[in-house]
Every structure is written in structure tokens, then in C-alpha cells.
Amino acid sequence: MSAPRRICVVTGTRAEYGLLYWLLRDIAADPALELQLVVTGMHLSPEFGLTVRDIERDGFAIDQRVEMLLSSDTGVGTAKAMGLGLIGFADAWSARRPDIVVLLGDRFEMLAAASAALALRLPMAHIHGGELTEGAMDDAIRHALSKLAHLHFTAAEDYRQRVIRMGEAPERVYNVGAPGLDNLLRLPLLEREALAEALGHALRGMVFLVTFHPETLSKTSDETQGLSEVDALLAALDTFPDAQVVLTLPNADPGGRGIAGRLREWAADWARRDPGRVQVHASLGSLRYLSLMRAASVVIGNSSSGLLEAPSLNVPSVNIGARQRGRLRAGSVLDCAAQAEDIARAILQALDPAWRAARRGWENPYGPLDEAGASRRILQVLRTADLDGLLCKRFHDVACNSTPGAVE
To answer: How far apart are CA 344 and CA 361, in angstroms?
Structure first.
């Protein structure tokens, strides 16, 4: 009997772990596979909620921790963190020697992990390639990860075709849908009363779920990255004093700490005037976050969850600015400029009963909810992919005909 195939999954943020959760469960339950889990980045930082404890509470054994996050809010700090990550992942890969490394998304932690895996000649599988986020440096990182990876799992056929146009062999690129949608199918969400108890505060009638990240390709300095945009957002929220606002703080990106500070100041000001109106959470975890999304009147900000998961919950999203520019979106997503008047106008439209009624049952471009789910489709490929010769990549000429890569 052959030894189980070692599948090593890397996670560095709360949101990414939520997308990977069911894949981790499925790998761990498969006798033909051995799950290795490497935790890094924000998970290991008290400033961002020390979410490694959530992973442990979920029952996963952590095989390696790679410390790389600096207490910095600058591009220099991010670059140095990547250097620390490269050193840490070199040690991790040398110790673990996985058969396949699984990376999701577009963050700098994943680029450090992939660069080390390349040097150690480890096959890589990349999830969520081919997408565009033209307002963030993540866009370039995502495409770089696609070129470093050997297997690709995209969230839509448009993205599969883009990865193929980047020169990746069609038979290695699989359109599996968005793994985050598996949570909506397989995770029992909390009803409003249980959700309020889990959050530790009451929920009012109209709830705004707000997450705002810096646009990391902005030409402003690191110290002021995103501050004018977040000020516009807060001014717009001030025009809806009857709405309860639940804020989740931004990721560890250049400018993120400045935005987090501004959000906390605004919340503290409202606490003096109307206690309970504004709540701030460093991290909610998938169960509370998605339960809150389902209960919300509207999702506001520039998080990818407003484009990927919210449409499947029939919740409209107000998407601000350029961070998510280029991504596929459902009709439930209202794009607006990062100006107070534009944001307020978009929120009013999202709350309009006639507009909402006309768009019930929004079609999600990232796939319908079905029993197979993206995680199980990915699992099938990880279990059966031929590893012989996988490291050798040939550039696929786009003039060649592509072949279907969907996993049934």
C-alpha cells in the first residue's frame, strides 16, 4: 500500500482560511491524502485577532508556523516581511517535503511561500487565479502565482481562459467555482438571536456590514494610504444614523493600520453619542461573518466577499473605488466612486425595496450552490493528478485549441 500523498496548505489571513476550511476538512478525511498545514502572517499576530487559535479550535493540527509579519504600515515593511517569509518557508518546505503545496489568492505571504517552493522544486496548486483586482498590488501577485504554479483552480470559466492565455496548459487549469460558496452550503449559519449572542452585542433593525481595505496601488504615501477614501465612507455612513454599523478591520497591507485607527476613532465617537450603533471586530471568523452578511441590509466597502458570497445570500453590495475593479460581479453589486455623495447614493439604491425586488435571485458568476462544491472538485484533482513531470511546464500558445478542464 502506497503512502498517503502529502498535501500542504498555506494560510495567512482570516478570510483565506474561511475559503480553505472545507478543503482542509476534505483532505484530512481522505485516507489517500495526508494534510499538512502551514500557518503564517496575520494568523500569528495579536493585533489581527491571533486567529491561529480559531484554526486550533476547529481541530486542525498545525505542522509549521512561519513568523513573517512586521509591525509596520509601509511598503518597506511589507517587502521585509516577504524576505522573512522566504526564509521561514525555505525551512518549512525542507522539513515537510510535501508532494503538492496549495496556495490561495493573491497576498504577499503566498508569494513568499511560492518563491521558496520554486527553489525547492515542489509542485504547487493555485486557487482563484485569473482574476483581476486592478486597484491593488494583489493583482500582480496573483498573476505571478499563476506562473509559478503547476495546477490551477479557477472560480469561473472566464478566469480559466485568462490563465490559459497566460501560457498555462489547458489540461492543468480547472474551473471549479469559488470555494467560499461551500460555506453557504455546508456551514449552518446562525439565526439572528444566536448571532447576536455570538457577536456579544444586540442587532438593530437595519444592519450595515462594512469592510474597507487600502487600495495599495494608490500614489499616496504609506502613511496616508486610503485615509481620504475611508473618510468619505464614514461621512456617507453618518447620513444613515438609524443603521447599525458592524465594522471588520482591514488586512495587514500598506496603509491598513492607518485605516484601522481611523475606523476605531469613528466608532469611539459614535459610542459617546449612541452606544451600540457602531461595533468593531478585528476578526469574526467565517460562521459569524457569513451569518452577519445574511442578516445585513447591505454589505459596504471593497472586500471580495461582497462580490463572491453576498450575491448567493441575496444581499446587495456597495463596492467602493478601484480595489476590486476587473472582477466579475452579479447584478447585486453597485459600484461607486470613493466619494461620500456617491457612496450614500449607492447605499440608498441598495436599500430601495423596488430595486431589491427586481433583482431577487441574483445569478452569481462564481457558480451556483451545489452538492459537489469547489472544495470537493479540487480534492479530486489533488488526489489523482499525475505528479510525474508536473514540475516541467511548457508555455501554451494561445493559438492552440484549449480543452475542457471542468471537474465533474
So the answer is: 24
CATH number at residue 172: 3.40.50.2000
Same domain, 132 and 11: yes
User: Do the domain assignments include residue 402?
Assistant: no
386-399 mean pLDDT: 91
| pLDDT tens for each residue of 138-163 | 999 999 999 999 999 999 999 999 99
Q: C-alpha distances in angstroms, 122 versus 58, 343, 400?
A: 28, 45, 28
Nearest-10 crossing angle of helices 108-119, 138-148: 20
Cell of 291: 451569518
What is the model's pTM? 0.88
- For residue 309, tell me if it sits in a domain: yes
Total number of domains constituting the chain: 2
What CA–CA distance (Å, rounded) separates 177 from 156? 6
Nearest to 337 by CA among 324, 325, 320: 320
Task: Note down the domain range covering 19.
Answer: 5-178+369-384
- As beta bridge partners, residue 126 has 103, 152
Cα separation, 295 vs 194, whole angstroms: 12
130: left (phi over 0), alpha (psi -120 to 50) or beta: left
- Helix, strand or coil, per DSSP, at residue 364: coil
234 in a structural domain: yes
CA distances from 376 to 29, 167, 331, 336 (A): 11, 26, 28, 36
Q: Do 233 and 333 belong to one domain?
A: yes
